[in-house]
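User: Fold this one for me? It's Putative amino acid transporter, transmembrane domain-containing protein.
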Amino acid sequence: MLEEEIVRNRSHSIDGIPSQLDPEYFDDDGRPKRTGTIWTTSSHIITAVIGSGVLSLAWATAQLGWIGGPLAMILFSLITLYTSSMLAECYRCGDPVYGKRSYTFVDAVRSILGGRQYTVCGIVQYMYLYGSAIGYSIAAPISMMEIKKSRCLHLSGGKDPCHISSNPYMIGFGVIEIFVSQIPEFHNTWWLSVIAAIMSFGYSTIGVFLAISQTAENGTFKGTLTGGSTENVSTTTEVWGIFQALGDIAFAYSYSQILIEIQDTIKSPPSEIKTMKNAAALSVAVTTAFYLLCGCMGYAAFGEQAPGNLLTGFSMYNPAWLIDFANAAVVIHLVGAYQVYVQPVFAFVEKGAAKRWPQTKVEHKIPIPGFRPYNLNLFRLVWRTAFMILTTFVAMLIPFFNDVLGFLGAVGFWPLTVYYPVEMYILQRKIPKWSPKWILLQIISVICFIVSGAAALGSTASIIEDLKHYKPFSSEY
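Assistant: Here's what I get for Putative amino acid transporter, transmembrane domain-containing protein.
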C-alpha cells in the first residue's frame, strides 16, 4: 500500500501543484515543460546570426570581389548548415529520443568527448561569447552615434565633420544591458529574440534598399571581379584584407556555440533534433539571402570604398528619418543579440557559484504595485552588473568594429562551428575511422582550420595597424 501511495503521489498533483514527474507539466529530465517551437527557435537563431556582422559584409565583398564575395558567403552558409545539423544530433547523448540531454554546448562535449576536451572547449566557447559581447558593445554605439551624426550633417549641410566621441554611447549601451541582463534565464528571452529578429529584418531590408537606391543613382554597378583596391597599396595589405574579410563572413554565420542552449528550449514531440534541423535550415536560408543582398548591393553601391558598417555610408541620405530608424533598429536588435550570447555565460558562472555557495541562490521578493513581485537575487545583480561594466570598459579600450568582428569570427569558427560538431558527430554515430564519410569530415575540418588561421592573422595585423594611430579612451567617430 505504501509503495502504491508513493507512485500515486509522483504522478499526480498535490494540493494543485504538479509533482516533478508529472509528464503534463515536466519533461523527462524533471525540468518544467519546454515550450519552444520552430518559430521561437528560428527567432533565436536569426537573432544570433543576423547581428552586427551583416553590416560588414559589403566591406568583406569589396575585399573579395564579385566572384569571391558571394562564393565565400554561400560556402560558409553550407558549412554552417551541415555542421549545425550534426551538432543538433548531439543534444541527447546516445539515443536521439530518450538519451541524456545536454543543456549547453560544453555539456555535450563533456558527455561525448570527455573531460579534457570539455575544459578546452569551455575556455574557447566562453572567451568567444565574451568577445561577442565586446563586439556588440562596439557595434551598437556606432549606430547610436550615426543617428546624431546624421542630424548634425543635415543641419550643417555637410560642412561640419561632426566628430563624436564613442565613450558616452558605449556607457549608455552598457547601462541598458545592466537592466536587461537581469532576465533570469535564457528560456525567458524568447520575446526579446522575437523583437530582435524583427529589427534585424528591418535594418537589413533598409540597408539593401539604400544600396539599391545608391546604385541606381550611380547608374552603374561598382566593383571588380577580383576585388581589392585600385589605389597603390601593398600586396601584403591586400592579402590581410582578404583574410580579415573571411573572418568577418565567418563571424556573420556563427551561432553553433549557442545551438545546444537554443535546442534546450524546444518542446517535444516532435523530436528536438527534427525541430532544430528545420529551424536551422529555415534560418540559414533566410540569413544567406539577406547576406547576399546586403553584401553584393553594398559593394555595387560603393565599390572599393564600401564602409565597414554599411549604414554609415548613408549619413547624408534623404529622408534622414529612414537612416535614423535603421540605426535605431540595429541598437534594439543588438540589445537582444547581446543577451542571446551572454546568457550562457551567466548560467555557467551562476551554476558553479550555486554549487560552491548555495546561499547565492537565495531570492528576495520585491513588491511591484499592479504586477507580480520581482524575485531579486543579489548575487545575480552584482555579478552581472560587474560583467557589463568590464565588457564596456574593454570595448572603450579597443573600439575597432571590423577588426574585432574578423578576429572573433576567425578564432571561433573552426573549433566551435566545425571541429567539435564533427568530432562529436563521429563518435555519436560511430563512424568508422578511414571510412569515406570520416575522411570527408576530416577534410572539411582541416580546410576550415586553415581558413580560420589565415583570417585570424589578417584581423590581428589590422588591429596592430590600428593601435599605431590610436589613443585609448579618446576615440572619435
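One thing worth pointing out: The CA atoms of residues 4 and 325 lie 63 Å apart.
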